């Protein structure tokens, strides 16, 4: 599979495949079909995707991974907007979910799924017509604040191309550590990393964690800047914190 995932036997992603995922609409004989691909900014519509197999028919027997058979990641190409959705399946093999693209711009939709124990991520471009001025990717900082007021600190090991890099997140709220994080998708946290430029997709899950700490291990495939989207659950709500990580030469 054309994929860079981190997998272990309990379903977490640790093992390394050869290439990043999400760069193509077709890979390994499977094709992502999506409709619509053009959206009116700010208007909710029913968005649907189908996974077509080598014979052209819709694939319906997806594995359940991380408590859902299909994960849809929607991100604006300048990496300033992020959604993680779990669509519902229909009898014809279409997976549907309400979707709003909030502002004009170019977006990327990633379908993250698995079949027969083999993970695969396919991607397709979406467009919300209208004027927009793309801005620069935020600079790397160690602490970010979510819109709900949670503070998340990221401690990064020394990034090295092709080697596992530890990523340790610490969550606090109003000056106190959040020691009662709730399970989200079968783990303490969920992390997606996207490479600036082509949006190469890395999907990782925790290797460790307790109290206010969630620890991941990521393998960065090249030099460059990556945008990390961490999601965690607390007080029955899902919270998102976004970070920029730079992988230097050498």
H/I helix tally = 0
Shape: globular
Any low-confidence stretches, pLDDT <50, length ≥5? 1-18
Rounded to the nearest angstrom, the distance between the terminal CA atoms is: 27 Å
CATH fold-level topology of the largest domain:
Immunoglobulin-like
Report the radius of gyration as a whole number of Å. Answer: 18 Å
Assign the structural class, choosing from mainly alpha, mainly beta, alpha/beta, alpha+beta, or little secondary structure.
Answer: mainly beta
Q: Tell me which CATH architecture of the largest domain applies here.
A: Sandwich
Number of domains: 2
Q: Indicate the percent of residues in helices.
A: under 10%
CATH top level assignment of the largest domain: Mainly Beta
Please describe the structure with a list of short key phrases separated by commas or semicolons:
250 residues; mainly beta; Immunoglobulin-like; 2 domains; five-stranded antiparallel beta sheet; 0% helix; disordered N terminus
Q: How are the elements arranged and paired?
A:
Layout (H helix, E strand, L loop, with lengths): L25 E2 L2 E6 L9 E8 L18 E6 L5 E4 L2 E2 L4 E6 L5 E11 L2 E11 L14 E3 L4 E7 L7 E10 L2 E2 L12 E6 L5 E4 L1 E5 L2 E7 L4 E11 L2 E11 L3
Antiparallel strand pairs: 1-2, 2-3, 3-7, 4-5, 4-8, 6-7, 8-9, 10-11, 11-12, 12-13, 12-17, 14-15, 14-18, 16-17, 18-19
Describe this structure in words.
It is built from no helices and 19 strands. It has 250 residues and is mainly β. It folds into two domains: 26-128, Sandwich (Immunoglobulin-like), CATH 2.60.40; 143-247, Sandwich (Immunoglobulin-like). Strands 10, 11, 12, 13, 16 and 17 form a six-stranded antiparallel sheet that branches. Mean pLDDT is 89; it is low at 1-18.
